[in-house]
Structure formats: structure tokens, C-alpha cells
């Protein structure tokens, strides 16, 4: 567990170590099957996998990266929409976001397991069943790592979490735990997921009111709460930017007074949350059909 956080070279060596990742996944699967998601060894295994998934897309061996990106390039080039200024350019962008990974292997080995749907479901199972904060945080953190970035892998993993594995209810529960770092990691994961335009309506329906409910009533009182608040605002920004319906949902959840209060604080300590709230307010105001409702 300590070695897995030793930097890129350490991660590379451990990912390449024959049988290591497979053994960790095998152990966790056994613990879940035996209804023992809270033992210390499971926590250690998940924390190692969390660390090994950090910057995975950037650090992937070239053979994997080529197979993922070549398939994406082939699909993109088959679409004959002209250039950046084509009338359907936004649809093309959304289509590229939804480009799937190469077909999943039914029996993944080594580094392939790190983004496989089997392990994604294991993380979601641990989030739902474990009561150990470190296990919950590491499971959320691994999914956060896998959904970071804008390549095909993060979007494919996001789609698995939201649509194929029905992971939002488990993640939503983590928004209401008392442990601040677990809550912060859950919000960061939702912020990543909310960047995927094809998933925004599902995410807004499931968790937008919960995100509003955990916004502080006044200016955040600590660094970790400040960071969490900023991430909530950016997640809400993603969900409402292109959707008047979702902006109205935020309004009906009484989010506006909270966001205004947070945005008006100008002290340096809380500037990150204040800036994020201001960006969200600016975006909300772009929905001109809601101006009269905002004023009320």
C-alpha cells in the first residue's frame, strides 16, 4: 500500500508485476462473497488499486493506448460532418464522448482489470456494503481516478457507473456521511461524471437535489469543506449549463440563496468556493426563461 503511492515509476512497476493486480481483485471478490467487506486486508487491497488507477490513462502502456485511441479515431473519421464549424459539430463531440472502449475481455488480466466493468462493480459494491471510511474513500477515489480526463476511457467508465451498474444510489448515500474526506471524494467523482453530456439528465434526476442539500448555508469553515463546496458548484454548473430544466430543479431545491451567500464571500481562504459559486450564478443567469423565477 505504501509502495503504490511512491510515484509514477513505482506505479508502473507494480502494474507490470505479473499476477499482482489479479491477486488483489481476487481477494476483494472473495471478501465480498464471504460478506466481509470491512476487514483491514480488503481496505489495503482497495487502497493499492486506488493508487494504481491514478493517472492511468496517461500512463497506460502504449499498446493499450493505441488500441483505445485508434478505434476512437476510426469512428470519428467515418463521420463526414465538416470541421469545427459544421452544423452538427456538437453532436459529433457528444458522439465522440460516447465512443466505447474496445470490447471488454471476459477474463481480463493485469492492468486490463483496472478499468474493467468487473472492478467498477466491485468498487460500487464496497461503497454500498463497507462501513470502513478508508475502504469507502479508496473505492470512490479509484472511480474518481478512472473518470478523470477527457479520453475514451473516462467516458466509458462513467457510462458503466451511471447506466450499466446503476452506481448513483450508492454514491448519493456517500454525500450524506459525516466523514469529510469520504464526502469530498464522492462529490469529486460526481463532478467528473457530470462532464459527460449523455449522462447529465440521469445524474441530475438522481443526485442534483442532494448536491444542493449538502451545500453549506453560509461560507465554508475549513479547507476541506471549501474544496467540497467548490466541487459541488462545478458539478451543478455542468448539470445546469445546457439545461434549463436542471436549472429549474436547482431553483426548486432552494439552491439559489446558498449559492449567492457563498459567492459573496471574498476572503482569500474561501476564494475557491466563492469563485465556483460565482461561475455557477453567471451560468444560471444565462437561462433567460428563468429570470422572473430567479427574481421571485
UniProtKB/TrEMBL annotation:
It comes from the Eukaryota. GO terms for biological process: cell-cell adhesion; desmosome organization; heart development; intermediate filament bundle assembly; protein localization to plasma membrane. The keyword Repeat applies. InterPro entries: ARM-like, ARM-type_fold, Armadillo, Plakophilin/d_Catenin. The keyword Chaperone does not apply. GO terms for cellular component: adherens junction; cytoplasm; intercalated disc; nucleus; plasma membrane. Keywords: Cell adhesion, Cell junction, Repeat. It is found in: Cell junction. Residues 94-107 have a biased composition (Basic and acidic residues). Residues 79-109 are annotated as: Disordered. This is PKP2 protein.
Amino acid at each position: 500500500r505504501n509502495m503504490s503511492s511512491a510515484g509514477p515509476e513505482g506505479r508502473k512497476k507494480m502494474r507490470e508485476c505479473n499476477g499482482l493486480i489479479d491477486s488483489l481483485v481476487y481477494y476483494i471478490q472473495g471478501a465480498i462473497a464471504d460478506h466481509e467487506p470491512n476487514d483491514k486486508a480488503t481496505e489495503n487491497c482497495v487502497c493499492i488499486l486506488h493508487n494504481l488507477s491514478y493517472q492511468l490513462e496517461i500512463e497506460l502502456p502504449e499498446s493499450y493506448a493505441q488500441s483505445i485511441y485508434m478505434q476512437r479515431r476510426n469512428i470519428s473519421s467515418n463521420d463526414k460532418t465538416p470541421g469545427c464549424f459544421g452544423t452538427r459539430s456538437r453532436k459529433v463531440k457528444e458522439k465522440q464522448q460516447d465512443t466505447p472502449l474496445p470490447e471488454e475481455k471476459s477474463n481480463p488480466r493485469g492492468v486490463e482489470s483496472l478499468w474493467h466493468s468487473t472492478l467498477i462493480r466491485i468498487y460500487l459494491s464496497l461503497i454500498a456494503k463497507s462501513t470502513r471510511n478508508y475502504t469507502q474513500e479508496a473505492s470512490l477515489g479509484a472511480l474518481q481516478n478512472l473518470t478523470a480526463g477527457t479520453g475514451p476511457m473516462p467516458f466509458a467508465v462513467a457510462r458503466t457507473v451511471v447506466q450499466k451498474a446503476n452506481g448513483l444510489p450508492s454514491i448519493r448515500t456517500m454525500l450524506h456521511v459525516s466523514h469529510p474526506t469520504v464526502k469530498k471524494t464522492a462529490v469529486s467523482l460526481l463532478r467528473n461524471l457530470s462532464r459527460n453530456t449523455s449522462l447529465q439528465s440521469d445524474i441530475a434526476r438522481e443526485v442534483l437535489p442532494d448536491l444542493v442539500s449538502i451545500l453549506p448555508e453560509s461560507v465554508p469553515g475549513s479547507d476541506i469543506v471549501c474544496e467540497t463546496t467548490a466541487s459541488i458548484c462545478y458539478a451543478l454548473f455542468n448539470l445546469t449549463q445546457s439545461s434549463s430544466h436542471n436549472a429549474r430543479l436547482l431553483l426548486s431545491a432552494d439552491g439559489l440563496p446558498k449559492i449567492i451567500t457563498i459567492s459573496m464571500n471574498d476572503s482569500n481562504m474561501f476564494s475557491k468556493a466563492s469563485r465556483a459559486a460565482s461561475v455557477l450564478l453567471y451560468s444560471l443567469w444565462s437561462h433567460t426563461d428563468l429570470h422572473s423565477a430567479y427574481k421571485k
